[in-house]
Design brief:
8 helices, mainly alpha, globular, 4 strands
Amino acid sequence: MLEIKKRKLARSSTFKVGLVEIQDEVRRAKKKSEITRWSLRESFDKHGGRCVFCGMGLLCHGDGPDSAHFSFYIPLKNGGSPGADNLVLVCQTHKKTYRPNQILMTKILDVNTIPDLIVQLVEAVKEVGSTAENGILAKQERIKILKRELNFALEDLALTMRYKVVGLWRPQEFVVIEEGVNTFAEQILEPKAGELKQTFQQIVTTGKYKIIR
């Protein structure tokens, strides 16, 4: 019964309009996508019916400020995937004003949890090596966005830290973290013996991850 109800909702005007908007965006980017109205319905459920940027509860019908819309989290022009795994739920305002440097208000499994971001960042760097020259700039922009996301996620984690290390480890000297030089995201891509572990241990021991920007 619940499955039938969900399928009826997937046929509502919001998902019809949303699909047209997404298909138009994919077409302009000269890509192909298998996103359907059902994909949008699943994305709506995955994000709890709330805008990922402001947390507003959204409706499956109407065209007001609280109507549901969909965007690609990493824009297609920045190397984002045209698949359902890159879809996020947004309100009308953020559909119009979204920029790729905005940070999601919540952490969503398979989208932007810290492990997800680490995997996506490493895969994005691998893709650059196998990408034609005319597509490298878009891939590099995606890497920049993922680095920023990972560092913001770690800053949030440090502020709400409930992770205690049992043992005698103490930092011999505190590492100064500088954006573009030695953030956790940079160290993942160019690991040096002990540095990644040292930085993470400093974060979890002090509960701080301050970046000089």
